[in-house]
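Re-run with default settings, no changes from the original entry. Doing this only to confirm the output is reproducible before filing.
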Amino acid sequence: MSDNGAAFLPGRRRVLLGGLGLAAGAASLTLTVPSLARAAEAGGSRAAADDIQIIIERVQQRFLAQGDEVRLANGIFLARTSEALTYAESLRPDGSWPNVDYADTTSSANGKVWSPYHALYRMIAMAHAYRDPDAAGYGKPELIEALNSSLLHWDKVEPTCENWWETEIGKSMAMGRVSVFVGDELSPEAREVAYAHNTGRRDPVGANGSWRTENYLYEAVAKHAAADIHQGYVTMSETVAVDSSGGINEAVQVDSSFWAHGAQLYSEGYGMVLFTIVAAWADVARGTSFDFSSEDIDAIAFYILDGTRWLIRGEIGMMYLGYRPPNTIDGITSYAADFLEPLDRMARADQARSAEYAQLADNIRGKTRGSGVTGHKYFWRSEFSSHQREKYGIFTRINSPRMKGSEYRSTFRPEVGNEIAWNASGATSIQVTNREYGDLAPAFDWSHYPGVTAPDAKVTQQSSPDNAGSFTGGVSDGRYGADVFSLDRYATTGRKSYFYFDDEMVALGAGITSTSEHAVHTTVNQGAARSNASVGGKAVRPGTDSAATGASWAYNDEIGYVFPQGGPLKVSNKAQSGSWIDRDPVERNAFTLFFDHGTAPDRAEYAYIVLPGATPAKVRFYASRPAVRILRNDEQAQAVHHPRRRLTMVTCYEAATVDLGAGRTLEVDQPALVMLDESGRAPVVSVANPDEAGLTVSVALTSRGRTRRADFGLGTGADLGRTVTQPLT
């Protein structure tokens, strides 16, 4: 690398050597402070050299602490540190392993394994073992000899792959880790191979950028190149910089969500990768001259504590993740477990917010049910809402033509269909115990996502059409909120609203019409069945399959449901079977409530209220005296009013006037989501429109002969869909 931090990629000399160049001499058994010569290489500063040594030791500790199984970033493990000596013994004289196909080009992106990965993983395992005091190979020179030989063979055959990620990032990751662990012990020829095949570079864009920059930093650290390390940290900080342009860029958005692969919410997945990498480098440099600035630490907190934390309540509030097995980390098996290590690291790196990071980590570990946030957050850039209370959390994911709703990246199984096709069509995760859906996976019925209205049919397309209903979005005042989802998918249309209060969520649907050949269902919930599953106070026996019920309320686990207007409701409590890819089928008991609108419904409706964390007695009482009044549920407007909270929420699909009762009216002159809060001395209104940039919405409240009004100038660009709140005067 050059002094200005640019990697020598185009002109870098590829090492091709005929001999093995095996290192001789005894290996160092402990990590040592760099020599004066190395300090000079670090820029003439002994202090900088000492800081680099601290980073090296912490990087080594980071990976050794992960345990015996060697992992890169693809979730698989192909080698163990404890077997390092076996790998060295099984190496052929030419530096190859007999059971590795170096000519294989298979992509690992679809659940398969690129065979050369076995060689890379074994190299890492040998490097780990050499530095691990608890490993049988600790300090053994035969491991260095094997690494020299295997690296030179890799350079000779130069494996490649169909997928760019393996050859650019995955390979570089392995080479970078080997160089950080044992670069000083390798022969000069082998060390140059590790550098030559690490094509890391400074890239500030998203998760892939953080991977590339991390690989760049591995080499800079291994070379003790202080200037390059500083440049690498500058670029790493840029990967979490907020993109306020309003364009479609892979970056942290102004609402603190994260996009990848276009306009697509990826705060989990690629966003988790980004957080993991940035947190790791924040942690290893803390207290050194290479540490992130306070502004950089603030940016990470904005992304995670103001953003991603709202997607988590013990588990990630995205049910579609159940299509694959969760990882087990630190003894926790969960889709949120991947956040544990970076959260622990940020608790060290950001002392001012240490308690907040630790609280979220404790929540994922099951020590608490809540994640430390209370209120309502709508991510207007990513069309996702989080409603958090002490006793529960509700997460709703919606999808307009402005956003990509799903990306199917797993091996397609025709017998199962596209599991994630409906995950952004109003899918509503209702979490009290945080095990409601995890205990059901992988036997989840993918055509019945909670909160979704859809034909009862398996989706067979790998790339399913996104929703065409543009009036899709949310409004929030920070405590309460509402979502609207204009359904237009798979020959089915409808107007759906979700209203969130302190103790309940109200869901309304109107105008549900379909030309699909399949019956259309609106699923209230589908979760793991518990022994208290009931409708109207009567137990729903196991084996019940789509039984019609006229009950006004239902209950399962710790969640109650109220049906104030009745409807074609059906209930199931039955065994469902399913499997993850390449896993044996399992059977789970599922409790499902859904409205059966029948085949080819024409302007059908529904209404239900969810009471998370309520007792059966409270739900029974609520059904007889609902705390929320439904004011309208039609194709022009959907509106609810909570008298005790003095709170009204309205979805206006067009200009509309809503009768509030007692001679009071609320008039809205444009399509908008509106919240009217009359709990204070003056009425306060929050307004949002998700799909018309720069719209001015006029709202008027008439009561007792007096009209109060205000005009709301809504945002454009990155602020399209953002809520504007102000009092009526």
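Residues 1-43 have pLDDT under 50 and may be disordered. The two ends are 63 Å apart (CA to CA).
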